[in-house]
Design goal:
The chain is about 80% helix and about 0% strand. It is built from 18 helices and no strands. It has a domain of about 290 residues. Helix 3 packs antiparallel against helix 4, helix 3 packs antiparallel against helix 15 and helix 8 crosses helix 17. The protein is globular and about 70 Å long. By secondary structure, the chain is an all-alpha fold.
């Protein structure tokens, strides 16, 4: 315990450029992950170019694929995703209360509308997707009703943590959205090329492109998350801002191993933890066989989150720790500060997730309806691809409020007595204690 206490004391007052502390341990890890990530980008680029050219040549000689009816709806969804991402960013910055309520109440409605669209398409795959979407919308509605009492605190803490963002933060997020737009358009061209050819390996090629799109989008999001969380942490912990451009440069130069690992690990652990909490809520206090493992599953999921959580990205940016070690240390800091209950009830992750779902649903409705009107057989796949692109792009846009709040919580947990913090967290902790009693 003494060792942890000493470590916590050292974390409270970091230097203006703490990321350089562990610079000497980076070269080997950095080289390996740079090779892996950039090799992946090069190989996927070659694959996409090959598939695009092959698909266009194939479409010129046969008539089972029509580029003029497949590409426009999907490319329009990319543009729509960019517009929605910038809109979410603007609403969150200007009015956090409306942003939170819009995410929690619009997302179920839009998801349900997407489910209805899939059912109207009336193919085997679309009906299955429609049923999943409608069930998801129902779960989101119930969840929104359940957490409605937390909206006031969520609005308060989000407003406090995102106040006075550095000017270059908006530039960083905007450039990240534009980068995701370009990469999405590039990926769409490869998916279209594979769809046009219809060979036995094309489903594999499409899967590779979609997985690459997902991983790359998460990496872009987490680069923003690490960069901004470092900038905001220095403000909350030391009362000073560091240059966002310098923080971004250091993130790309030193933190890519942790960003790459976290981009693959954190979403998986988040899904596991969310499903475990949902199972536990459904099970309640029953001891029936189907729910007998709910507590066990939740325990395993909670342990997994301790080894890989989004809060760890703050220590990744500030101290250049590995993602797993940063997650463990951050969770220990929360535990020592008595913030575990507060962190577990935080709505920021749900807010960002539902914002992404809502954005994905808007894009899916736009492109899916268009494709359904002009070429019904394309509607299902176009709707699914549009949803994924809209979701990932909106998550990138929402990375900055998530980074601000993460930095706020971590800085507070490391030094609750700092005069830089107001009574927002202590008042909330007292409310939670009264409710538990």
């Amino acid at each position: 315990m003494q060792g942890v206490h000493i470590q916590t004391q050292q974390l409270r007052f970091p230097s203006a450029n703490p990321i350089k502390i562990q610079e000497s341990s980076i070269p080997i890890r950095m080289t390996v992950f740079r090779i892996v990530f950039f090799s992946h980008l090069i190989l996927v680029t070659i694959l996409i170019v090959f598939l695009t050219i092959r698909g266009l040549l194939s479409a010129a000689h046969n008539h089972h694929f029509c580029p003029k009816k497949w590409y426009p709806p999907l490319l329009t969804s990319v543009a729509c995703a960019g517009i929605v991402a910038f809109t979410w960013q603007g609403i969150t910055s200007c009015n956090p209360s409306k942003a939170i309520r819009a995410a929690f109440w619009l997302s179920p409605l839009l998801t349900c509308a997407v489910g209805i669209l899939f059912i109207l398409i009336n193919s085997a795959g679309s009906i299955a997707a429609g049923v999943v979407a409608v069930i998801s919308a129902l779960i989101q509605s119930l969840y929104a009703c359940w957490v409605n009492p937390r909206f006031q605190y969520a609005t308060r803490v989000l407003s406090v943590s995102t106040a006075s963002p550095p000017a270059k933060t908006i530039v960083l997020v905007s450039l990240s959205i534009f980068s995701s737009i370009l990469y999405s358009c590039f990926s769409v061209s490869g998916i279209g090329g594979a769809t046009a050819s219809r060979t036995g390996l094309d489903p594999l090629f499409i899967s590779i492109i979609v997985l690459s799109l997902a991983w790359t989008m998460h990496i872009i999001k987490n680069i923003v998350l690490v960069t901004i969380s470092r900038v905001k942490y220095m403000h909350f912990a030391c009362g000073e801002y560091i240059d966002t451009r310098v923080a971004f440069h250091d993130t790309v130069r030193y933190c890519m191993p942790s960003v790459c690992i976290g981009s693959a690990l954190a979403p998986i652990l988040g899904v596991i933890h969310g499903s475990a909490r949902a199972m536990r809520l459904i099970a309640g206090d029953t001891d029936e066989f189907l729910f007998s493992c709910a507590n066990c599953y939740l325990g395993i999921a909670s342990a997994g989150v301790a080894y890989g959580n989004r809060w760890g990205f703050v220590h990744v940016g500030v101290y250049n720790k590995g993602f797993v070690q940063a997650s463990i240390d951050t969770w220990e800091v929360f535990r020592m500060a008595g913030l575990e209950t507060l962190i577990n009830s935080d709505l920021t992750g749900s807010f960002c997730f539902l914002s992404g779902v809502a954005g994905g649903a808007i894009c899916s409705l736009l492109s899916g309806t268009w494709a359904f009107a002009i070429h019904e057989s394309y509607a299902t796949q176009v709707s699914i691809y549009a949803f994924l692109i809209g979701y990932f792009m909106c998550r990138i846009a929402m990375a900055w409020p998530q980074a601000c709040l993460s930095a706020y919580y971590v800085a507070y947990a490391e030094n609750p007595q700092s005069p830089l913090f107001d009574s927002t967290i202590p008042v909330r902790i007292e409310e939670l204690r009264r409710h538990q009693v």
